[in-house]
Structures
1.
Amino acid sequence: MTTSPQPLYYARHIFFCLNQRENGEDCCANHHAKEGFDRCKAQVKAAGLAGPGQVRVNKAGCLDRCAGGPVAVVYPEAVWYTFVDANDIDEIVESHLKNGEVVERLLLSPDVGR
Ligand code: FES
């Protein structure tokens, strides 16, 4: 028996690693991940992109690519980003989350892991 794919509840979903390590090891929370998450959430809302059928911005725990932190990943394209400041977040929102255009300059290198 085959099943038809369900329509996407969200057109795009972005997850931000906000992991904070207590043992002194480096983590995304040490690199302003929360500021990036907050900025993204606010910009998506301000652009009228939030909600079913559109974009969802979510917190995540460690995504196991800590060496590139802070990191975020966009689905369904499975595109990984690293970012530095509000300008980077604004570009991800405008280009990728709104228009579906990947922001090449912020892509996380494929060999970056933990
Ligand atoms: S601490 Fe962010 S990916 Fe691991």
2.
Amino acid sequence: MNRLPRAFILLCLVALALPFAAPLAAGSSPKRQAPAPQASPTPVRDEKLWRRALALQKRAIVVDGHNDIPTIMADEDYDIGVSSVGKYHTDIARLKQGGMTGEFFSIYVDRQYATPEWVAKNYTTQGGSARRALDLIDVSYRMIEKYPQDLMLATSTADIRRAKKEGKVGVLMGIEGGHAIENSLPALREFYRLGVRYMTLTHNNTNEWADACCDTARHGGLSDFGKEVVAEMNRLGMLVDVSHVSDETMSDVLDVSKAPVICSHSSARVFSNHKRNVPDELLKRIAQNGGVVMVNFYPAFLDEKVRVAGLERDERLKAQHAALREQFKDDPKRLDEESKKLDDANPIPNTTLSMLVDHIEHIAKVAGIDHVGLGSDFDGVPNLPEGIRDVSDLPNITYELLRRGHSDEEVLKILGGNFMRVFAEAERVAAVERRKISGEGSLRRLK
Ligand SMILES: [Zn+2]
């Protein structure tokens, strides 16, 4: 049994989507729910501009900071070489259509794996957080092995450039949820050796060494051990990802990190007052640090009216969702379906691709054009803005940026150039730092 208990995912997703709802209510869509088919975008298209957008997309190094397809590959036995149009956001054909050069496969470790209940009940058969990460890394490797003409493992900027040259999609891996290292610097190093090139310090859950956006603060940001984790990541050349962490943690990381940081999938808080989003003062600090904020496409993170409508719907349907949970408590799959049906019968407004581009422009205005990128969260979110159905629609963003008057050079930076600069700088820091053996941390584990 590899399958995640759905009820648990539901709870986590509600925490992701609606951190201000208390107590947690069911009804928000789960992390891995199939996207609803959406209407085709671009009602009146300037064909000449569209051709320019497609040509630019073809020329660009396009890097996406976050894609959750490995969870689906592992839990649903999904083969990424098989078309999943209308069901998932990602397959090989659409990655290529979207012009993807480097896609970060999310090695997402749910918080449940770190709970004493999980360990007591399941450790013998399913392991813990690190084992879950290993399983997702394995499924990523297996897909790369199965489709060597289309995919290649990418662990460096040089690899990403090689993928571009060879017309392949470079698969990068990023761990989501620092509890995956099970409080061990040796485990962190093993993940680096396997090819993991970023780690999101927390998911929505506070762990033993860092506070999360959407959970109780226990450390006032980053603990001393958390600072050792960051130092070791710098030394290795693993990017420090500050999506999902609390503002205090982000600030602490910016104080201590020797390399530029990334937000692999976060948007601007000014447009949606969600703790997952980055406030202007931290956007400015990330710019000073030389980092990049890769915009998340999730409508509730993009648009305050969607966020609020989601909260209101959850409140309205609270009793009905509670009844479903009771009725299908032994049938998580059915519960998932019925919860989705209930939500679908009570639709909330969506937002648009134009709003997504507003986030890009806002971050470019506050932090600078060199500090913004794309972090879709494909297949980790239940729905996307109008104008983006899946990964194949990335050129629509390029088109909209050009339509708003951005130069080719600016668009190339946003699509991946900025990320490449940050990654190269992290590699440079590591090349200097790695002469030290394991930093000061060496064999440190939390006692
Ligand atoms: Zn996430």
